[in-house]
Structures are given as structure tokens and as C-alpha cells.
Design a protein that fits this description.
Elements lengths: L1 E7 L10 E2 L7 H4 L2 E2 L10 E5 L7 E7 L5 H12 L8 E10 L3 H13 L10 E3 L2 E6 L2 E5 L6 H32 L3 H19 L12 H11 L2 H53 L4 H16 L13 H4 L6 H18 L3
Parallel strand pairs: 6-9
Antiparallel strand pairs: 1-5, 1-6, 2-3, 3-4, 4-5, 7-8, 8-9
């Protein structure tokens, strides 16, 4: 079995990816990935959506080919485009070969299929049980003396799972770095931190193959090491830790600034309360406060204190009213009578 693995950025909306991943050789969270068919391999394309329940789901399409020629690869690419939305991206991400041919006579041909050169030598292969396997940056090769069948399908699923992990980890690292660079860390940091942490806790595993699998586990270990999934995951976790620390420092600074502003307002409010209390104790009137302020202002500016306005007597003070005049006349007559009685002459 041989073919090309493509990434479908936007698979067809009518594409039904509801079949469970074949076999029970992965942990249950990984096994929640879904397929378009019930079998991996064969002559028809195989489409798998990894991490179906996550926001970062990845859809791969494996298109088998009859021979490793450029014409066959071009036909596979056109076949993959039939499962993608028009004008969407279809990207080749790897090639897979399960060969039952003689290792010595086929290694050069397979190296040309993967690398375009004969640089993939015997030293690049690992002995895994009765298999010889190599994982390259551009694909995976497995040599076996026995027919592939379901074993080849499980190896292909493990390789595609490694590609899916690699894609998600790289995109998460790039997204976090871009968020830090464009100044939107305060807005997007916590949602992205929660989303990526939730994905890692739910779907990422260093050893997703079950212990009972004698081939998938060792094959996946080779895939994980060659694709640098361990270092990528550790780098992402360190990046999340740094962003969490930055968010904590920003939150602490914002809370400190708010507390300082609040204390300043309380201090001003306390001074006002004290002044009002002092004014109440000393029976200070608003006019006295105004005179006090005017006096100090004149002292600092050197200008003379404006004189107070003279009190102008009112007409009522200058002349008695009409109803007071008869009373004043009667008082004068009384005083005159008293003086006449006192004089005997």
C-alpha cells in the first residue's frame, strides 16, 4: 500500500465523517476521531477527522496510488480536491508506503518517492519486531515480509495521528506568539490559554497507543520522535506558563493601580469631611470662609484687600413711618403737661 496524505482545510459540507475510527488500538479520547468510511486502506481514499470534538479538529485525506510516479501523485491530488470545498486549500503533508518487496532492491526507489533523492539509506530504518520502519520529514515507510492489510491501516492511522498532533502544536505555538506580538495579549490571552490547555488535557498523549498493541506503540514512538512532538509539546507548555505569568503580573498591576486610585479618593473625601466638621465646630459661616479666602489670596498676590461696602441707611431708618408720628406727638404733649404742673407759677 502506498499513497499521499493531504490536509483538507475545508472539507465538503456534505461529507459525512461519522464513522468511528477503525480498531481499538488508541486511547479512547483519540479514538473519538471519526472517518468517512469504516476501513483504512484499499483503493478508495481514506478521510479521517482527528479530534472531532475539539475546536482544532484536523481533516486528512489519504489517496492511494498504484505507482510512485509524478503522474500518479498528480492524479491523487486531483482526487483529494474532490473532497474539499471549491477554492479551499489542499496541502500535501506526507507520503506513506507499506512494502512487501525485498528491502535491498526497493530502498532506493522508495527514497526517490519520499525525498526525491537516494539519501534515505539503510541506517535510517529501525527494527520494530519483524518490521523495518523509517519516518522521514516527508513520509513514513514500513517494510514487512507479510501482507499489510489491517496492520498497514493501523500504521497509517498512527502516522496521520502524529501529523495531526504536529499540526495542532505548531499552530498553537504560532497563535500564542502572534498574540504576544500584536499587542492583543490582554484580550486573547486567557481564552487562548484555556482553549489550548483544554485540548492538551483532552487529546494530546505521549503514548496514545494501547499497551496491548505490539506494533502500533513502537511505530508511534518512532513517529513521535521523528516529528519532534515531545519537544513541541514542552515548548507549548512553557509558552503557556509564561503567558499565564504575564497575565498575572498585568492583573496585579491593574489591581494595584485601582487600589491606589481608590485610596486617593478616600483621602480627599476624608479631608472634606474634616473641613466640614471643623466648620461646624467653630460656627464658621460661608461669608467668613469667603473673607478668609480673599484675605489669603491678597496676601499671596500682593493686591490690596477690597474694602467692605458702606452700609447705606434705608429710608425707613432716616424718617419715621406715618403710624409712628402721632405717638411721638402725644409723647411731646405729655412731657409738656408734666413740666407745667411742676412749675407753681
Amino acid at each position: 500500500m502506498q499513497g499521499v496524505v493531504y490536509l483538507l482545510d475545508q472539507p465538503l459540507k456534505t461529507l459525512k465523517l461519522n464513522a468511528s475510527l477503525e480498531g481499538k488500538y488508541f486511547l479512547r479520547p483519540v479514538h473519538s476521531s471519526t472517518m468517512a468510511s469504516t476501513r483504512i486502506g484499499g483503493h478508495e481514499p481514506t478521510i479521517i477527522r482527528f479530534f472531532s470534538g475539539a475546536d482544532r479538529a484536523i481533516v486528512f485525506c489519504f489517496c492511494p496510488i498504484d505507482n510512485p510516479t509524478d503522474g500518479a501523485v498528480g492524479a491523487a491530488w486531483r482526487r483529494a480536491n474532490q473532497f474539499a470545498e471549491p477554492d479551499s486549500r489542499v496541502e500535501e503533508v506526507g507520503r506513506f508506503v507499506w512494502s512487501n518487496n525485498a528491502f535491498e532492491t526497493t530502498i532506493g526507489e522508495i527514497s526517490m518517492f519520499l525525498r526525491g533523492s537516494a539519501t534515505l539509506t539503510e541506517d535510517c530504518y529501525l527494527d520494530i519486531g519483524r518490521l523495518k520502519a523509517a519516518v522521514d520529514a516527508k513520509g513514513m515507510i514500513v517494510f514487512s515480509s507479510e501482507p499489510g492489510g489491517d496492520r498497514a491501516g493501523r500504521a497509517l492511522a498512527a502516522y496521520m495521528l502524529g501529523l495531526a498532533y504536529h499540526r495542532v502544536l505548531e499552530e498553537a505555538i504560532n497563535d500564542l506568539a502572534e498574540t504576544c506580538r500584536n499587542g492583543s495579549l490582554e484580550i486573547r490571552a486567557e481564552p487562548m490559554h484555556a482553549e489550548i490547555s483544554r485540548f492538551l488535557a483532552s487529546y494530546y498523549f505521549e503514548a496514545p497507543a494501547r499497551v496491548a498493541t505490539t506494533e502500533v506503540g513502537p511505530l508511534y514512538a518512532a513517529i513521535r520522535d521523528r516529528l519532534l512532538l515531545g519537544p513541541l509539546c514542552r515548548e507549548l507548555v512553557d509558552q503557556l506558563g509564561r503567558i499565564a505569568e504575564i497575565s498575572r503580573m498585568q492583573r496585579t498591576a491593574a489591581e494595584s493601580a485601582f487600589e491606589t486610585k481608590l485610596q486617593r479618593r478616600f483621602a480627599i473625601f476624608g479631608v472634606l469631611i474634616g473641613l466640614l466638621g471643623l466648620a461646624q465646630l467653630t460656627q464658621t459661616t460661608p461669608s467668613q470662609i469667603q473673607s478668609f479666602a480673599v484675605g489669603w489670596k491678597s496676601f499671596f498676590t500682593g493686591s490690596p484687600v477690597p474694602s467692605a461696602s458702606p452700609v447705606v441707611p434705608t429710608s425707613e431708618a432716616k424718617e419715621p413711618s406715618e403710624h409712628m408720628k402721632p405717638q411721638q406727638a402725644r409723647s411731646k404733649r405729655s412731657r409738656h403737661d408734666v413740666s407745667e404742673q411742676a412749675d407753681p407759677r
